[in-house]
Design goal:
Number of domains: 2
Distance between the termini: 18 Å
Structural class: alpha/beta
CATH class of the largest domain: Alpha Beta
């Protein structure tokens, strides 16, 4: 175990984990009060999202992938229609595409983790739609994608599940496509117990999506998940310590979201009134939440400038919840993950490319050399928001050990 000097006041017994949820007990108490006085939290949340994003039509759901499935069905794609998506993406996305009876078409990514017009032009398979995700709080080249999709005659899905509240030239991510999706789950850019949204300027898409009669989850399960989430967060350092004892998991270093841990995608529900109110409360603070993450990302970037073996994958002031770091000089992501975890800092590899999973190999469009290389040279560290100098020192000293 590595012990750092007393000047940094660090202890190897403390775990530097991901930031706390963006909601607090005051939000929870207010949500209970709201439920006792009126019962239209879903409608209120939809209106709040409309106002925040400046969009015309919204449907809130229990999960972002529920919104994606409903959106794909609502644009009228036939069974088996091709949908392009990058191979480096949260596995829940391909599950949602399959849930909508569409055929995924996996393509490679650029070194910045995004798909590009160049990659889309090289895709030889017939497609009807393309999904453009904004991973970890980064902004994909969505404006270029919008122009390309119009010329190609494809539907554009703006996946802002990990980029809620982020804007480009005054326009929010999620609003650039024929429809967009948002997610408000744990460790997302706006972190609450659960929630998702389908957004579009095309009212017919939202109207068709709302024709699906979704059951509403019971209050019991909503409160159980909410309180359970708080307990799990406070016990997270102990969970991570136990997890690190499993050497195989540390060696694999894959993303914490593995296929075996993904919830059943058939669980398409309305968002509970309690969680809808919690999301609405957090939305009211979205500007400060995004600003705080941008500030600490910038501080982390400034700190890393003293090294020549590491670099941010994206811009230095993006509102990351997890910061992708590219390694140079022969270091591997597996080595970095192993060292950081030995120092009790919660890090992980980027998403394992989907085409490397046996069950998704049949959806490969072309060779994927870039994504496979990125998987070996990029890992993600927690944004030390709310950790102050202590968090930055922990990260700086871990990087010193890698040099």
């Amino acid at each position: 175990m590595i012990h750092l000097d007393k000047n940094n006041n660090l202890s190897s017994k403390r775990y530097l984990a991901l930031p706390p949820p963006d909601w607090n007990l005051i939000d929870l108490l207010y949500s209970f009060f709201h439920l006792a006085t009126k019962n239209n939290s879903t409608e209120d949340l939809e209106n709040a999202i409309k106002i925040m994003l400046g969009t015309s039509h919204v449907m809130v759901t229990n999960l972002g992938r529920t919104a994606l499935t409903l959106g794909l069905k609502a644009i009228g794609l036939e069974k088996g229609a091709g949908v392009i998506l990058p191979t480096v993406i949260c596995p829940t996305v391909i599950r949602a595409v399959l849930q909508a009876d569409c055929r995924p078409i996996l393509v490679d990514v650029e070194r910045n983790l995004h798909i590009s017009v160049r990659i889309l032009d090289s895709c030889q398979e017939k497609a009807h739609a393309v999904i453009v995700p904004h991973l970890y709080g980064l902004s994909a080249p969505i404006q270029e994608m919008r122009e390309w999709s119009k010329k190609a005659g494809l539907y554009l899905i703006d996946d802002a599940a990990q980029a809620v509240g982020i804007s480009i030239d005054g326009k929010y991510l999620g609003t650039f496509g024929d429809f967009g999706i948002l997610s408000f789950g744990p460790f997302k850019s706006l972190s609450t117990p659960r929630g998702g949204a389908l957004i579009s300027e095309n009212g017919d898409i939202i109207a068709r999506a709302k024709e699906n009669i979704l059951p509403r989850e019971s209050f019991y399960w909503a409160i159980r998940r909410t309180l359970g989430g708080l307990i799990k967060f406070h016990l997270r350092p102990y969970y991570l310590r136990i997890k690190d004892l499993n050497h195989k998991k540390v060696r694999a270093g894959t993303s914490s979201i593995e296929l075996s841990h993904i919830e059943n995608t058939s669980e398409m529900l309305q968002i509970s009134h309690l969680e809808a109110q919690l999301v609405q409360s957090v939305l009211g603070r979205s500007t400060s939440i995004v600003g705080n993450r941008q500030k600490t990302a910038r501080e982390t970037w400034e700190m890393l400038k003293i090294f020549n073996k590491f670099e941010f994958v994206g811009q230095e002031n993006a509102p990351y919840i997890k910061i992708p770091i590219r390694l140079h000089g022969g270091l591997t992501a597996e080595e970095a993950v192993r060292l950081f975890r030995s120092m009790r800092i919660e890090v992980e590899r980027i998403y394992r490319p989907l085409h490397l999973y046996e069950e998704f190999k049949g959806y490969v469009s072309q060779a994927m050399p870039v994504s496979e290389k990125l998987c070996e040279e990029i890992f993600v560290i927690p944004n030390p928001v709310n950790k102050g100098v202590f968090g930055l020192n922990r990260i700086r000293n871990a990087f010193k050990q890698l040099v």
